[in-house]
Design a protein that fits this description.
single chain; Rossmann fold
């Protein structure tokens, strides 16, 4: 199974640090490293949603499934930087600890460092650098609101993760769901309200045709127990990746 070598890990870790510390010279750094912003690269997936919705738990469940496909994965997990202490907990990776010893997975936590939209500074450059060393890059935003939509500009496939809360009006509001290629509803087992929310999401959001010709897909998942992860990956992420390749 394909791996990310120790040499590649060291180089990528150094590159990410450089790009975060000197975002204004990102293009120069990548050029010096022989990495082009538009070069052939891995598929970049962004996952966003409100704090506590289950993004990092979902990614933790996705990693072994992607690895079974032989895909090398880089995870960029973004946490909010405090405007008081200037520090960040960088705790999302704790939920991904089962993949720490997998030599085909590289996990890096990043603080927002004042960047808007629940992102981090120099994200396009960091994602581009990461995509040179793997097959799939997973970007997890910090806890985001409905209007934090910029992530969709920097990824190939955008997933918005929803909790089955609210009603049909909630689903009709503008925001992240407008740009999402995939909507993942993190359901709660045994609650009829969850099933009803998923059906409403499929009716209101599913199959809308986006700019790239893809029809938005809605998946019910249970991130805690790992249910629905394979359909999300095979029929969602990898299907969208293949559709983009065929379109190009």
């Amino acid at each position: 199974m394909a791996v990310i070598s120790n040499e590649e890990r060291s180089r990528l870790a150094r590159l990410i640090s450089l790009l975060q510390d000197s975002p204004s010279t990102a293009a120069e750094i990548l050029s010096n490293e022989g990495i082009g912003l538009t070069a052939d690269r891995a598929h970049v997936v962004g996952a966003s949603g409100v704090a506590g919705v289950g993004k990092s738990t979902l990614i933790a469940q996705m990693l072994p499934v992607l690895r079974k496909k032989g895909l090398r994965v880089v995870v960029l997990a973004i946490d909010p930087t405090s405007d008081i202490s200037s520090g960040a907990l960088l705790g999302d990776r704790i939920r991904m600890r089962d993949s720490y010893m997998d030599d085909g997975v590289f996990i890096r936590s990043l603080g927002t460092r004042g960047a808007p939209d629940a992102l981090t500074v120099a994200l396009p450059a960091i994602a581009s650098a990461s995509a040179t060393f793997c097959d799939v890059v997973l970007v997890e935003t910090a806890g985001a609101g409905q209007v934090d939509v910029a992530i969709h500009k920097f990824v190939d496939t955008f997933i918005t993760v929803l909790a089955p809360l609210g009603d049909v009006i909630t689903l009709m509001k503008s925001g992240q769901t407008e740009h999402a290629h995939i909507v993942a509803v993190n359901v709660r087992k045994g609650l009829s309200e969850s099933e009803q929310f998923v059906e409403q999401a499929r009716i209101l959001l599913g199959n809308d045709e986006l700019e790239d010709g893809w029809k938005r897909q809605v998946f019910a998942i249970d991130a805690k127990h790992g249910d629905g992860i394979e359909p999300l990956i095979y029929d969602g992420i990898l299907s969208h990746r293949d559709a983009q390749k065929n379109r190009n």
